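The passage that follows is intended for readers who have already worked through the single-chain material. We present the inputs for a multi-component assembly, then the predicted structure in tokenized form, and finally a short commentary. You are encouraged to pause after the input and sketch how you expect the pieces to fit together before reading on.
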Amino acid sequence: MVVRAANGQIRLFYVTVSVGGWGGSSVTMTTSPDDGKTWTPARRLITTPFFNLSTLVKGTPFLYADGTIGLPVYHEFIGKFGELLRLDKTGAVIDKQRLSSGNDSLQPVLLAQSDRKAIALMRYAGDQLPKRVLRVSTDDAGQHWSRPEKSALSNPNAALSGVVLADGKILVALNDIESGRDQLSLVASHDGGVTWKTVITLEDQTALRGQPLDRARFLETTGTLARDSDATVPNPADYSRAAAAQMCRGAGCGFEFSYPYLIQARNGDIHLVYTWNRSFIKHVRFNQAWLDQRLSEKGNDPVH
Amino acid sequence: MTRFTDITGLAGATLAITASLLLAPPVRRLKRIHIGLLMSVIAIIVAIPIGTLSPAAYLRSGFGDLSITTHVLLGMAIFTVLSGRRPVEERQKNAIHGMIAVTGLVFYPLALGFGPFDPYRLGYGSPWFLTGLLMLALGAWAVRFHLISICIALAVLAHAMAWNESTNLWDYLLDPLVSIYAVVVVLAGMLRTITHPGGRNVS
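Having made your guess, compare it with the prediction:
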């Protein structure tokens, strides 16, 4: 995860796994003073008292008004819960705040709507139906956070990403379904994440669920998807074979479109990247005008 | 570039390995001058890189920086081995072991997510936490548990000096290794009390 600090330097935060998989991970930071050409030696952040185990980062960092950095993190050791770290201008941890507790929330994504108002959306890792994205909110610049509650967005225990646009709209990319990761949607909210409207369903292979999907049919379908994504793709079969190597096991194959990451560039364009069948990273770019047009076309669609 | 906390952290890990080896029964049978020489040799060996890292660095990479409380207890153990004298009376050691064990048993589950309250957050400069520590240190001094007061005072001082990599005061007061050690020592003492009711409870 990357943030441009108040002094213009880029700070990169990433997960380092030592022992025992994700439970044994910690967050490491490195800094670039020259827009990514060179990087300082990596530095481990100390964020938990128990051998510094189990802190992971997935959500985009952000800057507070005083130049300190907010870093949404989560734990996956004994419990699964979200936290918000605060780092000073040198990158030292100066505070942390729990966004949830227990064993069912992961990967907080913080969306600040104003100097005082923000929400955080979290992946739901629990078993209780309905499986929905968890939402917490603050009205006092993060001094206090509400208790987690289920939002209107479905979530199959999968990562999501979001961004707040200049007009206050919140845009989120996620698997808006309760099981599987074979559908990926872009949704928008005008009211701080209370209600949502689907902007576009980017990927959807839910119709093939329950049907026997052999390798030949999978290759054909993914080839079509690759060609539809980019007509200039020279050889869609290469994409299909790579996807099949990841997604075909035993008797059948499946689809997965996951781990979205959404940002808005300085020129206003919105970039979305996501994992395409565990074999490629797909990049989708659109602008505010396209988004506004989509939302006006969807004006009468029901919200959820 | 080597940072200050790398030097202090490696020194702490060297102290831990050295003290652990010196406490082995065969070593304690040696003459004090030989123990002193052995300690110097061990300290040098564990600081020399084997491959890319020294044994001290391997220990530090796995367990992190040791708390100041651990430093104090290790230092006392080395002092006892070298001098043949105990730096503090047993009741003081029992008191600090008991306090570390109880604190560790409450603190770590909460800090790792058992419930909504995170006591670890208090270590980032909470005035209430600092006030509580001051009261505890003064109270311990008043009832002549000086070791507790000294450990708290040194931990706060080291935190102010940014002695360890962590910026959280808890990491200067407590670490998992000393907490596990204290729980084992306290349980062993309780077991001895139960099995030998008339004997001394020494930990």
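Commentary: The mean pLDDT of chain B is 91. DSSP finds ten helices and no strands in chain B. How closely did your sketch match?
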